[in-house]
Amino acid sequence: MNIPCEKCRPAATLIGVLALAFWVIIGLPRAIPVAFATDSAPVPLLKDGHPVDWWFVFKLNGSDFPGCTASGDDQRTCTFDKNRKPPTKKYSPIGQRFIYASSEDPELKEGAGCTGETATDPLGATFGDVFKGSYNYVVWNDQPDGHPKICGNQPDCGTSWGHSKGLLAWNDAGEGLVLQVTTPSWPLSASAELPRKGDANTLGCVANNNVKLSQHFFALRLTKDDVISVLKALQNASAPTDPSIHSIANNGGPSAIEALVKTLHAKALSTTVTSKQLSTGVILISKPARLKVPPWQMVSATLGGTSLKVASFHNSHDIADTTGSTKVTCWDAALPKPGAVTIAKWGRWGVANFDLQSGHNHAKIALSTGGNHHYTIFGDMNQVGALTPPCNKAQNVRGGLFFVLDNESLFESVTGLLNGSQPR
Questions:
Q1: Cα dihedral 46, 47, 53, 56 sign
Q2: Max CA-CA distance within the chain?
Q3: Helices 255-262 and 224-236: crossing angle, nearest 10°?
Q4: Which domain holds residue 30?
Q5: pTM of the model
Q6: The pLDDT of residue 416 is above 70
Q7: Among 151, 155, 222, 296, which residue is least crowded by beta carbons within 10 Å?
């Protein structure tokens, strides 16, 4: 029988305190098992035991960067699944090579191993700490592929739900982390005791190939107030989740957090963009699904009309480049005027140029191209929708989150990543 972790922790804490008192009384070394250290918070990890305030991972696409390593010495494993082997039939090409930056070193560098599968890559270490731990958490993903069904009887969540994927975890004091992901069908469980039913718990092991295209991941350390802000942003964006499913929600901690988690399984009525600066200085923007505007023009407007260069899931027939004078009539009078928004079509890593359009890229990254800031933005949403009526198209009628970092070193490094050219 699996007992919900929030009911187990008080007993575990009492045992830990009694154990400490026992060692003090008899004068022996105070070696307390890690399981009793329940006051620790989940944090972004570059590898096991190496915390940072934030990290950014860019998973390269499988067509241009196949496998997990440049040498081809790949050791793919389904780390968070028992008796499961990595699928191969539908997985062509496989792309789990990655580059990363962090608050410790904001310059991009290539990592080692398969993204999300090891204790030494940021995604694998951070997700693994939550998955194998006993924290409070909530998971959301608008493309669960029916496992579980969190938006009625549909396999995926459509119009008026958030186009958003991620994981929020916190301790009983309310401190924790948010992990933004862009991969369909993962994650959809945050507990090894309650593994996902019907599909895998490991990136690169789910039934559908979610490691073929480029993807991005972003993790950020949060205070209690930050956790509350993220939950309010998720609520505003109609993030698709279901707190009644214990594999994707383990509610606990401060009462204000518990109450907000309970509100998440509902489509929000809001049409108001929210913007909040978190304790790390990162700005969190939330687009409500009922606000029928093009998403990245909305981000530009929210940042004071800052012009943007955007790399997202995008086809030639989707929203084209706009200038500051382009007429956007799918708009809201409460929003300021947006700046220019242009599409990054080619990226570059090392000596290789690679395609950043929808056949190869599912990451959602933007850079400011004017003003006094050095914004790097990690978002949930594609640049797909409409500038002019009819406005109820694609991402115009979806919600999502955007994390905005003002960091010059990161900005310069990501600028190089998005400045590729079409191979001849």
A1: positive
A2: 77
A3: 10
A4: 1-38
A5: 0.90
A6: yes
A7: 155
